[in-house]
């Protein structure tokens, strides 16, 4: 019995040491980002700046400001204290699974949370980056390989067919989801498809809260599944207030791809004689639907908040997040849609739990 206890102690110490080592890898990335954002002129900051410039050229949706938003988020999350707090509720075993990650590329570092999760879980990552978001992913993986030689065995990038893996995390569209389901039918998998996010207004929001809502709507040009694309508003709500405050993002109309989408959607509505409110850089359109095209924000009036809750529950599998100051289940505060905690997982599926489950 004594020997068994000692063996368990040794095992736990080994696991804890490995977790500590992996937290060090991740917090080191956070320090690199912090140095860059602090305008330090060290060699790694210069290299990251070159990667940022290359990423912006490679994908015109990745504006400098949006890349900086993504880096700022990860700078704040990749600290030893935040990482320790995140994992303290989990039981770690000897993890050595090979986990394939098929990443999305709709905004900068969209698949980074999955990579961070695989690393901290003790597993090994085989990454297939999106062609739209490969530059920054490659930079941080290359940094790990150079700074910590042992990570060459922990994190790998592939661009060809995925082979030799135990589990898979794949994020894509509704169409690719069907492909994922079939292709990975014999693997332990965590698969994600399109989702949308919404806000529920009481009508009593302050200007500051609505400014935060504008971040939730327009950051990353509204391309993320956590971007608010539909707003429930009370009857008689003054929509001009939204239009006025949302003007703090009017600069996005100068982005050619966003502007093309806005002009196209506006033209379609004019040709179809549809009613809408033109915000100058966005379109407010009354609809009971969800997931509008880029540059359009759906709104829907309500008289009873209970009815809103019922509608939300009926669309639960299609909703990523909800922002509100009302009593809406699983809602978060304004300005937090694009700044989730590490344990606020995509599709409400616990990624770490999936990675730590052996059966």
Overall pLDDT score: 94
Biggest sheet: strands side by side, in what order?
8-9-10-7-6-11-12
* Percentage beta strand: 15-25%
Oligomer classification: single chain
Distance between the termini: 27 Å
Task: Please characterize this protein's 3D structure.
It is a single chain. The protein is α/β, with parallel strands linked by helices. The protein has two domains: 2-194, Aldehyde Dehydrogenase, Chain A, domain 1; 196-332, Aldehyde Dehydrogenase, Chain A, domain 2, CATH 3.40.309.10. Helix content is 44%, strand content 16%. The protein is built from twelve helices and twelve strands. The chain has helices at residues 2-37, 43-58, 64-77, 80-87, 112-121, 135-147, 174-183, 207-218, 239-245, 256-271, 305-314, 351-356; strands at residues 98-102, 124-128, 155-157, 167-171, 188-192, 196-200, 228-234, 277-278, 283-286, 296-302, 319-324, 331-332. The strands form two sheets. It has a seven-stranded mixed β-sheet, sandwiched between helices. It has a five-stranded parallel β-sheet with strand order 3-2-1-4-5, with helices on both faces. Strand 4 (167-171), helix 7 and strand 5 form a beta-alpha-beta unit. Helix 1 (2-37) packs across helix 2 and helix 1 runs antiparallel to helix 5 (112-121). The longest helix is centred in the N-terminal third of the chain and has 36 residues, at 2-37. The chain is globular. The two termini are 27 Å apart.
């Amino acid at each position: 019995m004594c020997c068994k206890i000692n063996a368990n102690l040794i095992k736990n110490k080994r696991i804890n040491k490995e977790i500590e080592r992996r937290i060090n890898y991740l917090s080191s990335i956070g320090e690199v980002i912090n140095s860059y954002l602090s305008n330090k002129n060290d060699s790694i900051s210069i290299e990251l700046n070159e990667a940022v410039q290359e990423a912006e050229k490679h994908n015109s949706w990745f504006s400098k400001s949006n890349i900086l938003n993504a880096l700022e988020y990860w700078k704040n999350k990749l600290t030893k204290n935040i990482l320790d707090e995140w994992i303290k509720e989990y039981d770690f075993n000897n993890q050595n699974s090979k986990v394939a990650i098929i990443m999305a590329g709709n905004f900068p570092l969209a698949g980074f949370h999955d990579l961070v999760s695989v690393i901290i879980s003790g597993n090994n990552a085989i990454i297939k980056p999106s062609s739209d978001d490969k530059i920054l992913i490659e930079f941080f993986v290359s940094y790990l390989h150079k700074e910590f030689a042992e990570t060459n065995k922990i994190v790998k990038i592939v661009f060809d067919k995925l082979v030799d893996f135990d589990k898979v995390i794949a994020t894509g569209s509704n169409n690719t989801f069907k492909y994922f389901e079939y292709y990975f039918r014999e693997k332990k998998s965590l698969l994600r498809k399109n989702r949308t996010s919404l806000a529920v207004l009481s009508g009593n929001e302050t200007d500051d809260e609505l400014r935060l809502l504008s971040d939730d709507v327009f950051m990353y040009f509204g391309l993320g599944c956590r971007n608010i694309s539909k707003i429930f508003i009370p009857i008689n709500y003054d929509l001009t207030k939204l239009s006025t405050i949302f003007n703090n993002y009017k600069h996005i109309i100068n982005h050619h791809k966003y502007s093309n989408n806005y002009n196209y959607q506006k033209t379609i509505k004019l040709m179809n004689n549809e009613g809408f409110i033109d915000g100058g850089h966005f379109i407010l359109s009354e609809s009971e639907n969800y997931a509008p095209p880029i540059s359009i924000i759906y709104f829907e009036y309500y008289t009873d908040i209970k009815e809103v809750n019922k509608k939300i529950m009926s669309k639960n599998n299609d909703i990523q997040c909800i922002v509100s100051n009302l009593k809406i289940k699983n809602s978060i505060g304004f300005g937090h849609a694009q700044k989730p905690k590490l344990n606020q997982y995509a599709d409400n599926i616990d990624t770490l739990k999936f990675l730590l489950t052996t059966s």
